[in-house]
Amino acid sequence: MRIKPKRNTLDLSVVLPSLNEAPNLYRLIPEVKEALSGLGIQWEILVVDGDSPDGTRAVAENAGVRYILEERKGYGMAIVRGMEEANSEFVLTMDADLSHPTEFIKSMWEQREKGDIVIASRYVPGAHADQPFFRLLLSKVLNTFFAYGLSIPAKDLSSGFRLYHRNIFERIDLEFTNFVILIELLLKAFGRGQRIVEVPFHYKPRQTGISHARIFSFGIDYLRLFRRMWRLRNSVEFPDYDARAFNSRIWLQKYWQRKRHEIIMRFTPAVVSTVDVGCGSSRILSDLPHAIGVDMRHDKLAYMRKSNKLLIQSNGMVLPFKDEQFECAISSEVIEHIPDEDGKLIDELDRVLKPGGILVLGTPDYDRWEWVSIEWLYGKVAPGAYADEHVTFYTYKSLREAIVSRGYEILDHDYICRGELIFKARKLPKPVKDESGPSRGQSRELAGSPVE
After folding, report:
1. pLDDT tier at 451, thresholds 50, 70, 90
2. What average pLDDT score do residues 113-135 get?
3. Where in the chain is the domain with CATH 3.40.50.150?
4. Are 424 and 411 within 8 A, CB to CB?
5. pLDDT of residue 167
6. How much is the pLDDT for 386?
7. Rg of the chain taking only CA atoms, in angstroms
8. Share of the chain above pLDDT 90, in %
9. 10-233, superfamily in CATH?
10. First to last CA, the chain
11. CA gap 83, 361 in Å, rounded
């Protein structure tokens, strides 16, 4: 499911998910109003209720705040409904059980420009949590396990006391309807390049009523989430896949990414006009801050905003650039993913590259037994990864011919584990015809002479 927010007319909406919390809401709402009034902004309070029979509607309406009935079960559905109903640029969520101090709203609001998601955290330096020992231990273990296992840069992933910049929800598809939506939101937002900030606060358990989070079922739900999210987190579909692979815990993957990075950076001229087509979220583009990154996937480009500002979402077969605009064009691990018998992507790279410019082009060499073996093994170990997406199969001979036939001289080439091939080539000036003889400027490469 995807949240479809309304138009922003206010600064801040406070969403209070509720189920049989009428006595607590009677105390909480006036305190939230007082905290919001001191911010000097336009605000609203929404009570999203799971059809409680305890008079929650009357409490909300008598307090002059919006009451929203959400008949679909689950904490996650209350959060989603609150986001959909909010009329503001920022949305703050907090529990209705008085465990989240309203005086802390001001501190979170002051951090709004530092992160797309601001978490009131129980587990960062300066924070404190008044919880029974066993519950606190289990919470810390689960949070540490998820943060490490899913590589999310936060310590309190399960805190529901958060401030969101609401535009982050416009491109996130959510699956879970219970408490684990809190981790799902962080994972998917972080994967899209959104910033997560934690602010320490003093957590106090609910003062009245009964918690609706059963500790053991809560933990089981989290483990189910981990299994599903771990597969997503480590799949090629996740936006920061390429960036994470550079520091992978899998030795071969880490070596492969770093070797590719080393070769391409060695082949790429320093500080010239450069385009990286099919940049993804790779470390290569991060280390070329002057380059323009092009990719079809918006989420990968959103992730790359942290390191690069020159980003364009486009199909590499029809690049949005003028002829002969760049002095260097890079395309690595792209052409094998495109059903492109005629080499249209290579034609586009050639079109935007100036005469004398450098082409850096890489793809697996399917004439090498090393690559065929590695791809087979990779497909077994990581089903659904890049190995299953290859549809065009180049060899050293066919790729070299594709480059040379377009008027290039091969300057260098290198391999990663004798499997992935990367060429460095220079675009030659167009030959000038001479009626008295063969075209001037014809190179040995164009004439068919081998270049090693």
Report:
1. very low
2. 88
3. 241-440
4. yes
5. 85
6. 56
7. 28
8. 52
9. Spore Coat Polysaccharide Biosynthesis Protein SpsA; Chain A (3.90.550.10)
10. 54
11. 45
